[in-house]
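Example 3.2
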Amino acid sequence: MVRWLPLESNPDVMNKFVTNLGLKPSWSFVDVFGLDPELLAILPQPTCALLLLFPTSDKYHDFKKEQEEKVLKDGQEVSPNVFFMKQTTGNAYRTIAIIHAIANNADVLHFGK
């Protein structure tokens, strides 16, 4: 497996990264301190994406496998407006999450010089 230089999970680093991609600073990444309603309420509004990075476990992988089997068996209806790409390179999860956040919100984000 190809290894990827991991992107630091730090809003300053991620903001610099997306600015270099051409995203104007009218949108930015910020830290989320919890998922309780009062903590989510302090996020800048509007918010268009939440990147959730978490450690996985055997229980998580078992559940994921069950879900994948269910989709293969029953099918799945996915909106054509949803962008998804599977991560196939190790350590690229933050970069892939940022690409998902940008691609699924391109209609509200601002790009250019």
